[in-house]
Amino acid sequence: MWRNPASKCYSRDMSTPKPKLDFWYEFASTYSYLSAMRIEDCAREAGVEVRWRPFLLGPFFKSQGWTSSPFVEQKEKGSYMIRDMGRMCAARGLPFKMPEPFPQNGLYAARLALLGEDEGWAGRFTRLVYTEEFTNNMQLDDKIALGECLTAIGLDGDAYLACSEDAEIKTRLRDQTQQALALGIFGAPTFICDGGEKFWGDDRLEQALAWALK
Amino acid sequence: MWRNPASKCYSRDMSTPKPKLDFWYEFASTYSYLSAMRIEDCAREAGVEVRWRPFLLGPFFKSQGWTSSPFVEQKEKGSYMIRDMGRMCAARGLPFKMPEPFPQNGLYAARLALLGEDEGWAGRFTRLVYTEEFTNNMQLDDKIALGECLTAIGLDGDAYLACSEDAEIKTRLRDQTQQALALGIFGAPTFICDGGEKFWGDDRLEQALAWALK
User: Fold this and answer.
1) Burial tier of A165 (Cβ tally within 10 Å: 0-12, 13-18, 19+)
2) Interface of A with B in 150-209 (CB under 8 A)
3) How far is CA B84 from its chain centroid?
4) Cβ–Cβ gap A80/B198 under 8 Å
5) Euclidean distance between CA atoms B190 and B202, whole angstroms
6) The predicted structure's pLDDT at residue A156
7) Residue A97 and residue A137: Cα distance in Å, rounded?
8) What is this structure's pTM?
9) Cβ-defined contact of A207 to B79 (cutoff 8 Å)
């Protein structure tokens, strides 16, 4: 039977495709930072491919009638999170200075990461933004600082910042955020395997990777 | 210097005291079940002594303006919890049938466990109640069933059920629940080390034990 060498079918014949794991994250989310800094190493070791899925949690919070993050709405939970993040980051050798104000506005960073997902630099960009956010209190809505992050990973910062204002990318982020709501995502990070199995929280990354390999 | 052989001071001289870990749990809480079934084995291995601290989450929920558990208030989070609990219990070889209705009323079980804490049977009683709750949908407010749990661990069920109606034990549970609020406990299970370091969630049990040993 004749086969088009350029077809997806053919490329699947060429090598066994890696199972995929969707990594849904929000730039303002502290626990997303924990996962972003390790997911590619963990996934490489497991033999799983990561799809970076930036989205915004704000619309979910609104759908629950909240005016902010649960870490702001619930004072005790917020204090605990800061302590827990401090312990976790110390154990992993990650910097941790709580962003002020909290939560940050992750809109522009998320749009840029979406562009990066198309071109393969979402991971590098995301890790650098998180590092600046949690080390130097970089403000996520500071476009100049975001442009510097792009430049630092070898990209044309101005060009991508301009792209991030395109109607197309705005719509894509809105759609991706709506998709998160439709998938029943209620927090970040969330990991979703092909087939839909869902894992919430950095603590579940290993389980999500194991499930993806099933 | 003369020493009373029965004094606490003397008994501390006799052997190095184990560090202690307070295990704050609620009988209606699914994730408390996960910890209750393993905490004594884990703590024994670590060389830590567990103090069973049953309390009620209802007053905390009320303080947040909620009418029920977050797993009821937030539909997506509730569905996810059931799936996550199913996976966790399967991995640990624990039975898991979601209690109906949810959440159960843990008042009487908590009062009885308080009595058990004084006499050293809180762990055995708690594990049996959880097992019945998550295997056979035992209703936590079914005093006959609770009495059968007491009998099954070799106690006089009727006598302890009668004790659980004493004003003293009612007050103690109210006080313990107020103490949980004062400690900033916002969910269960919560582990608190001597010195006050707080860990929330079954996923943090190992870290809590390690901290207790510091």
Assistant:
1) exposed
2) 184-187, 198-201, 203-204, 207
3) 20
4) yes
5) 8
6) 97
7) 7
8) 0.91
9) no
Q: Which of A210, A198, A118 is nearest to A155 (CA)?
A: A118
Position of tokens 């940050």? A104
The Cβ of residue A149 has, within 10 Å, a number of other Cβ atoms equal to: 24
SS3 state at A81: helix
pLDDT tens-digit profile of B140-184? 999 999 999 999 999 999 999 999 999 999 999 999 999 999 999
Nearest-CA residue of chain A relative to B187? A77
The full 3-state SS of chain B, as one line of letters, equals CCCCCCCHHHHHHHCCCCCEEEEEECCCCHHHHHHHCCHHHHHHHHCCEEEEEECCCHHHHHHCCCCCCHHHHCHHHHHHHHHHHHHHHHHHCCCCCCCCCCCCCCHHHHHHHHHHHHHCCHHHHHHHHHHHHHHHCCCCCCHHHHHHHHHHCCCCHHHHHHHCCCHHHHHHHHHHHHHHHHCCCCCCCEEEECCCCEEECHHHHHHHHHHHCC
